[in-house]
């Protein structure tokens, strides 16, 4: 019996899926059960710039859908950019697109951000399953309540919920009673409490590349490396913490990563163990090639999440993560191999005081 399910990004690559199916055969109580993705372009965006995902035809997409369906996997179609109808013509274009997704492509569910679009789907395609995207920014049960009118089948909450343990418990309890599935992202490495999150997704929803936002966020991480640990990733070894809490669906993010990156990551989560660079698992901007020069020893983080502050107070989290990143740095389990140097400043913060060549280029772009 499958206890835990993993959802993976779609790169429209059959060979990659075949490799992952072989990994499934070796796993016990955990399986990759579904793929999520979308066409690069359509009348509704999808949380990534069109240029960052493979551009395939509708015919090729349907063929791929049949392929994974024959393997027993589901396909979740993304319509998860911020969206609102602006004209009757646009509404007609969306309806034509939805007809293709539901009747020709035969998606198992739609992942949506816009409440307006959810209501449109519920009214016109009442049998279609609706999943609420993380882009909708649901942080708590109070935030989720407004979406109950569309009877969602699943919710992927805001990435901060991974470490907001009180809110997570309430979401697990309430969604469980309503038989709404709860899915958490495991390879998400965005800033915790990111002030630019909403603007970032709106920018992407307009079909733009997101490089400017990556620069801002990575500048903060390079200056204060505690931010690497504060980000809301879930290590393969830590899935059990969330399973015990009542979560059994996990999402690997990384649609814009190279397809050949995915099997290494799925293997880690299926085996619940990874002996390597944690940064390698992150769905981080591939143009940075971060795993080639930023190193965090995944195994050295054993025990980190168990004792992560449950207070929800930023000061507590900062102090805890600063202590951990210094310990990792001192033991050579965290390093940035570009000549950058780190130490404590006068306020007691562990930070970069001498920029190496790669960090300097990121800081320069931000300025």
Explain what this protein looks like in three dimensions:
The structure is a single chain. The protein is of the alpha/beta class and 367 residues long. The chain has two domains: 4-189 and 232-274, Alpha-Beta Barrel (TIM Barrel), CATH 3.20.20; 218-229 and 284-367, no CATH class. The chain is built from 14 helices and twelve strands. The protein has an eight-stranded parallel β-barrel, surrounded by five helices. A two-stranded antiparallel sheet has the order 9-10. Strand 1, helix 1 and strand 2 form a beta-alpha-beta unit. Helix 1 (14-26) packs parallel to helix 11. The longest helix has 18 residues, at 88-105.
Provide a concise account of the structure shown.
With about 375 residues, this protein is α/β, with parallel strands linked by helices. It has helices spanning about 15-25, 60-70, 90-105, 115-125, 140-145, 165-175, 195-205, 210-225, 225-230, 240-245, 260-270, 280, 315-330, 355-365; strands spanning about 5-10, 30-35, 75-80, 110, 130, 155, 180-185, 250, 295, 335, 340-345, 350-355.
């Amino acid at each position: 019996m499958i206890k835990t399910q993993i959802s993976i990004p779609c790169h429209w690559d059959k060979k990659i899926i075949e490799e992952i199916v072989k990994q499934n055969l070796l796993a016990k109580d955990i399986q990759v059960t579904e793929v999520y993705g979308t066409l690069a372009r359509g009348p509704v965006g999808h949380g990534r710039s069109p240029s960052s995902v493979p551009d395939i035809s509708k015919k090729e997409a349907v063929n791929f859908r049949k392929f994974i369906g024959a393997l027993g996997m589901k396909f979740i179609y993304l319509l998860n950019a911020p969206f609102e109808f602006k004209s009757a013509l646009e509404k007609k274009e969306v309806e034509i697109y939805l007809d293709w997704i539901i009747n020709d492509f035969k998606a198992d569910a739609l992942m949506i951000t816009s409440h307006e679009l959810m209501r449109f789907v519920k009214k016109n395609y009442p049998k279609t399953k609706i999943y609420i995207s993380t882009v909708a920014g649901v942080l708590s049960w109070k935030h989720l309540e407004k979406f109950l009118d569309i009877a969602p089948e699943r919710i992927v909450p805001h990435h901060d919920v991974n470490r907001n343990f009180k809110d997570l418990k309430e979401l697990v309890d309430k969604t469980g009673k309503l038989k709404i599935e709860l899915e958490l992202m495991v390879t998400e490495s965005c800033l915790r409490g990111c002030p630019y999150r909403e603007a970032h997704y709106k920018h992407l929803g307009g079909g733009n590349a997101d490089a400017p936002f990556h620069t801002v966020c990575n500048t903060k991480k390079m200056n204060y490396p505690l931010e690497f640990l504060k980000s809301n990733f879930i290590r393969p070894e830590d899935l059990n913490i969330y399973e015990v809490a009542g979560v059994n669906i996990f999402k690997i993010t990384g649609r814009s990563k190279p397809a050949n990156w995915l099997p290494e990551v799925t293997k880690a989560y299926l085996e619940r163990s990874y002996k390597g660079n944690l940064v390698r698992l992150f769905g981080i901007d591939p143009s940075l090639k971060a795993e080639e020069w930023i190193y965090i020893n995944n195994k050295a983080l054993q025990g980190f999440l168990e004792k992560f502050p449950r207070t929800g107070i930023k000061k507590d989290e900062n102090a805890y993560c600063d202590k951990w990143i210094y310990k990792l740095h001192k033991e050579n389990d965290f390093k940035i191999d570009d000549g950058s140097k780190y130490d404590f400043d006068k306020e007691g913060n562990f930070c970069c005081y001498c920029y190496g060549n790669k960090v300097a280029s990121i800081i320069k772009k931000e300025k």
